[in-house]
Structure formats: structure tokens, C-alpha cells
């Protein structure tokens, strides 16, 4: 008799829904708590958020300077590059406040020995690392991303609906890749205690996503598409929105899924190796 | 309720000297060292017990506690608590336990403890009614009515520690692990926390108390487990612990006339304040108390005398110094 491959039973579906709702509820609570904590120092909060936003706009500023001086990225108009960078900053603007905080959270908690306190909660350690790491001042990055994206969109002809659909799909993959980056950085932070350089190295690697994929040589293009899905962070979603021809997008999407699965495995493997701090 | 069988934990650490040359050398070559934090430790704890888990620094107490709370994986051995293996069924298991770490706070520093309690309500999925009932009960018991809405950073250490207890027990855990819960507290705060633990234990909560404060152990624990060098060196009741060094008494005596010679079997001079004032340790298996009192009174006439059980500190010192 063939196996029944139908949907999970209504009870199971209900359980999944309730787990998801619970997850969401805890996340919102964590967010509110983080805001409340940050509001204790309001002046510093607004200043930090403003600085974050301004710093984010430095990349596009360099692009403007390049084009202003007559140079260019081959095959890309100025407004197209700005759109690409807007997409990249938007992706980073969502990732950093909402889930990338887990990296700093993990590195500092492991160093202080307070990672233990997350492990004694009846939730997945990954969920606890994210819930307790909402970074409200990184919302400056999101505002910067939105501003940049909106500014670049003004110079681009209105994309057809299908371009928007492709863009949204690739943008989700961009966020998944960011999440995978976060998993690797957090995992390394568990075993490589107090090494804040991990963060800087990954950030530098990620910054290649600020530029069109086509400006790099073939080997590097292969690496940032098939090995580490950096092309998905800005180049591919922006190309989809602009209706540009993209090669290797399916491969990059597969690579992103693999990267995410490997990231999850790596993170949980590193949790197993957690040694805690002396008591 | 808790079954620990041949629990072993070894880990690798790296040795490095203190000099600049050795620091440079360690960048290239590091000397590995295997540390056996726990060596086949076995014990059982029943429901509703209040155990004092003692040991000198580096003896393996915290490692045991971290394995029992699901934080660390052991190298070998078995642990079963309420039917769960802590490191395998971590999420389900930790929903039934609580932990207070005296040196690690679960409260969020910049906001009131109340906000941290509410976050815990979400994490543990505690129904609103049960949450309010437990919280109000505990807040009242620990005199925290005016405290829970103040930012944590403005609270005293004692107030913060009381809030840590609420944080750890809002979900009504069956077992609570306490790691140095009274460290740095004044006598009043210590007393309040001890009363709270006592009360909760009477209601059926099992406590495992790790501390260096022997007063905590004397006042709370009925049974004591002592670990040293990763092994259990004592596991019995408080009464047995008191008799561990034999049937001995601590005696402080002052006399009208100079003291007689005390160099005789069963007497150990601890501190001689003058020739009329001395602190002794009496071994009652070698010298009967009434004979000692009679002799002292006849030879020197007793002015004042106190007789107490041997201080637990001395017993623990003896257990800690065993190789």
C-alpha cells in the first residue's frame, strides 16, 4: 500500500500554528522589553540610531562620487547601482535589528558566562538568542535602507508586477542568506570565545554585496554565487526588479538554502561544544 | 526524582605561563591539558529534599549543576531527572526546573523586575491567572511590593536577589537549583531568603543548594553531598556530617585558678587566651564530658563554660583537605 503523503493531521497543524504563534508572541515581548531597556537612555538611543543611519549611507555616497567623476560600474547606470545598494541596505536594515543581534548577544554572553541563562529556558537556544537580542538602535539601518531604496526607485521606471514578484522572492532569499551568516558568526562565537573579529570579518565579506556581481572576475562571481550567496544580498534582487538578465540565480538560491541548512547544523553543533564559564 | 550514575566530565584546557615569552610561544604552540572535572559521580535525590551540595573551588560542583540543568553535555554516565535526560530533552526538562545563580542575573538591568517577570511569563507560557497568583504570593512573601516596579539598577543586592528567586520560580518548578544564592547579602536579606526557600521546600519543591556559606547549609539542608577533586567524598545527613570527625565537642572554659595540664588524650587545645581561659576540642570517645567537667572544676574551679557541637566549618575543612 502506498504511503499517504497528505497534509499533517489537524491536531498537528494546530500544534504548529500554536508553536508559531507562541514564537511570535515571545519575539514581540522581547522586542518590547528591548525598547523599554533602550528608552532608559533616550538621548543615546536617538543619537545612536541617527549615526547608524548616516553610516549606512556612506556606501552609496562613494557610488555617487565614482559616477560624479566619470567612472562607472560596467553595465550599470548610476541609479541602478543606487537601487542595488538600496536593496542591500534594506536587507541589512531588516536583518540587523530583528535577528542579527544574536551574533553580539551570543559572543558577549558566552564570554560572560550568561549564555547559560538562555539554556535554562524551555525554548530553542536559537530562539532565545534572537528574542533577547532585538537591537532597537539598528532600526537606524532600516530607516537608512528604506530612504535609500525609495530615493533610488524615483529614478527607475516603474517595474512591472512580475519584476516585483521576482524581487520579493529573491529578497526573501537575501534575508535567509543574512540569517545564515548570523548562524555562522554566532556558532563561531560559541567556541571561539570573545573573538569579536569574527563579526568584522563576516561584515567585510558581506560588503561585497554592495556592488554589482558583474564587476568581479569569473572566479569571484562563482564564489559569491555558489559558495557564499553574497550575490543574493543585493545584486540579484535588484537585477530582478530592474528586469536585467540574471545568470545562475537558481544556483544561488540553492546555494542559499544549503548555506542556511549548513548554518543551522553548524550552530547547533557548536552549542553542543559549549563549555560555559567557570562557576 | 534525580538519578545520577557514574557521571564523568573531562575537558581540554591549555596551559600557558605568565611571562611575555610564554605568551608569545602560546600563539604558536599550546600545551594541552586534560581536566577530569567529574569522575564517575553517582547519587540519587528524592522528591522534596533540600540538599546542600558543597565543595571547594574547582571541585566539580558547578560542572555537576550545569549538567543537571541541561547546560553542559557530560563525557559519559547517565542522568535521569523526572524521566528526562537533561541535555537530550532540554526544552521539555527545563520547563520543570528553576535556577538561581548568585553571580549571574536573569533580570534586565535597565527596566523594573516586573518587566522581566512578564517576559518570563511569555517564555514559559504561563496562563495570566496563574502568573498573577504566583507573583503576588511571592512578592508578598519577600516584601517586594514597592520594589518590583523600580528599575533593577536602582535595587540593592538583597532586593535584586529576592527578585531573582521570583524570576526562577514563577512557573512553579518542581526542582530549583541554587548556586550561591546568598552571596554578598546582609543577615536580614539572607534570613528572608532562607525563610522563603524553607517555605517553598515545605510546599514540595526540591532544592539543590550550592554554596560556600555553611550557615545556609546548616539552616536549610537536611542532607549534604560534598565533592572534592571531581568525586563525592561525603553523602549523608546533616547529623552524620556533624559526627564525621567523631563524637567531638567544642568547649570554651574560663576558670578562677590557673588551668591544670591539658596534655592528655581526648583534649586538643585550639586557642589558649590566658592561663585561665582556653578553647578546646574534646573527643568524647576518649574522655567523657562529665569527667572533664569534674576534673576542671576540682582543679581550677570553673567560672564559665560553653559546650557546643563541633563547628561545621572544621568538618568541611577536613573533607576539603582530603586528597
Description:
The complex is a heterodimer of chains A (279) and B (323). Chain A is mostly helical. Chain A has one domain (17-272). Chain A has helices at residues 10-38, 42-56, 58-68, 78-112, 115-119, 125-131, 139-154, 161-191, 197-206, 218-227, 235-242, 249-272. In chain A, helix 4 (78-112) packs across helix 6 (125-131) and helix 10 crosses helix 12. The longest helix of chain A is centred in the middle third of the chain and has 35 residues, at 78-112. In chain A, 43% of the residues are buried. The model of chain A has no long low-confidence stretch (mean pLDDT 87). With 323 residues, chain B is an alpha/beta fold. Chain B has two domains: 2-237, Rossmann fold (3-Layer(aba) Sandwich); 248-321, 2-Layer Sandwich (Alpha-Beta Plaits), CATH 3.30.70. Chain B contains eleven helices and 13 strands. Chain B has helices spanning 20-28, 61-68, 90-94, 113-124, 128-141, 157-169, 187-202, 214-220, 238-242, 289-300, 312-321; strands at 2-15, 31-45, 50-54, 76-81, 97-101, 175-179, 206-210, 223-228, 231-237, 248-255, 267-274, 277-283, 302-309. In chain B, the strands form three sheets. Chain B has a six-stranded mixed beta sheet with strand order 5-6-7-3-8-9, with helices on both faces. A four-stranded antiparallel beta sheet of chain B has the order 11-12-10-13, covered by helices on one side. In chain B, helix 4 (113-124) packs parallel to helix 6 (157-169). Chain B is globular, with a radius of gyration of 24 Å. The two termini of chain B are 31 Å apart. The model of chain B has no long low-confidence stretch (mean pLDDT 89). Chains A and B meet through helix 1 and helix 5 of A and helix 2, helix 3, strand 5 and helix 4 of B.
Amino acid at each position: 500500500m502506498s504511503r499517504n503523503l497528505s497534509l499533517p493531521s489537524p491536531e498537528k497543524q494546530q500544534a504548529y500554528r500554536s508553536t508559531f504563534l507562541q514564537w511570535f508572541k515571545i519575539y514581540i515581548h522581547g522586542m518590547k522589553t528591548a525598547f523599554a531597556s533602550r528608552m532608559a537612555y533616550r538621548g543615546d538611543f536617538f543619537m545612536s540610531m541617527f549615526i547608524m543611519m548616516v553610516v549606512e549611507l556612506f556606501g552609496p555616497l562613494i557610488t555617487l562620487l565614482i559616477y560624479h567623476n566619470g567612472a562607472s560600474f560596467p553595465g550599470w547606470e548610476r541609479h541602478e547601482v543606487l537601487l542595488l545598494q538600496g536593496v542591500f541596505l534594506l536587507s541589512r536594515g531588516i536583518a540587523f535589528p530583528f535577528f542579527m543581534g544574536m551574533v553580539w548577544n551570543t559572543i558577549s554572553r558566552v564570554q560572560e558566562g550568561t549564555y547559560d541563562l538562555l539554556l535554562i529556558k524551555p525554548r530553542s537556544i536559537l530562539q532565545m538568542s534572537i528574542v533577547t537580542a532585538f537591537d532597537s538602535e539598528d532600526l537606524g539601518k532600516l530607516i537608512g535602507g528604506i530612504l535609500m531604496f525609495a530615493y533610488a526607485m524615483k529614478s527607475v521606471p516603474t517595474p512591472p508586477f512580475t519584476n516585483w514578484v521576482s524581487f520579493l522572492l529573491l529578497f526573501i532569499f537575501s534575508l535567509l542568506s543574512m540569517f545564515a551568516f548570523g548562524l555562522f558568526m554566532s556558532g563561531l562565537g560559541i567556541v571561539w570565545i570573545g573573538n569579536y573579529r569574527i563579526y568584522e570579518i563576516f561584515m567585510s565579506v558581506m560588503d561585497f554585496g554592495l556592488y554589482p556581481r558583474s564587476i568581479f572576475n569569473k572566479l569571484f562571481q562563482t564564489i559569491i554565487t555558489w559558495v557564499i550567496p553574497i550575490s543574493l544580498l543585493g545584486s540579484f534582487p535588484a537585477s530582478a526588479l530592474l528586469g536585467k538578465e540574471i545568470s545562475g540565480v537558481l544556483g544561488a538560491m540553492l546555494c542559499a538554502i544549503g548555506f542556511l541548512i549548513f548554518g543551522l547544523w553548524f550552530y547547533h553543533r557548536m552549542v553542543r561544544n559549549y563549555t560555559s564559564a567557570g562557576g | 526524582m534525580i538519578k545520577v550514575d557514574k557521571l564523568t566530565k573531562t575537558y581540554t584546557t591549555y596551559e600557558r605561563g605568565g611571562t611575555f615569552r610564554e605568551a608569545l610561544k602560546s600563539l604558536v604552540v599550546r600545551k594541552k591539558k586534560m581536566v577530569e572535572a567529574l569522575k564517575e559521580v553517582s547519587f540519587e535525590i528524592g522528591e522534596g529534599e533540600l540538599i546542600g551540595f558543597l565543595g571547594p573551588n574547582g571541585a566539580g560542583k558547578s560542572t555537576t549543576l550545569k549538567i543537571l540543568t541541561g547546560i553542559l553535555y557530560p563525557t559519559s554516565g547517565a542522568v535521569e531527572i523526572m524521566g528526562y535526560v537533561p541535555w537530550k530533552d532540554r526544552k521539555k526538562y527545563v520547563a520543570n526546573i528553576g535556577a538561581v545563580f548568585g553571580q549571574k542575573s536573569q533580570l534586565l538591568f535597565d527596566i523594573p523586575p516586573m518587566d522581566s517577570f512578564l517576559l518570563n511569563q511569555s517564555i514559559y507560557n504561563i496562563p495570566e491567572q496563574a502568573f498573577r497568583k504566583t507573583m503576588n504570593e511571592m512578592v508578598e512573601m519577600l516584601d517586594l511590593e514597592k520594589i518590583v516596579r523600580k528599575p533593577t539598577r536602582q535595587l540593592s543586592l538583597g532586593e535584586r536577589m529576592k527578585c531573582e528567586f521570583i524570576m526562577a520560580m514563577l512557573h512553579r518548578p518542581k526542582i530549583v537549583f541554587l548556586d550561591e544564592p546568598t552571596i554578598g547579602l546582609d543577615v536580614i536579606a539572607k534570613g528572608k531568603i532562607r525563610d522563603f526557600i524553607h517555605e517553598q521546600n515545605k510546599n514540595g519543591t526540591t532544592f539543590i543548594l550550592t554554596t560556600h556559606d555553611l550557615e545556609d547549609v546548616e539552616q536549610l539542608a537536611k542532607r549534604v553531598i560534598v565533592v572534592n577533586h571531581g568525586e563525592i567524598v561525603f553523602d549523608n545527613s546533616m547529623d552524620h556530617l556533624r559526627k564525621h570527625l567523631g563524637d567531638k565537642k567544642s568547649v570554651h572554659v574560663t576558670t578562677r585558678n590557673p588551668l591544670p595540664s591539658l596534655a592528655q588524650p581526648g583534649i586538643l587545645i585550639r586557642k589558649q587566651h590566658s592561663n585561665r581561659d582556653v578553647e578546646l576540642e574534646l573527643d568524647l570517645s576518649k574522655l567523657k564530658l562529665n569527667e572533664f567537667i569534674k576534673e576542671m572544676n576540682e582543679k581550677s574551679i570553673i567560672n564559665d563554660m560553653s559546650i557546643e557541637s563541633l563547628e561545621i566549618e572544621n568538618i568541611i575543612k577536613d573533607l576539603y583537605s582530603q586528597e
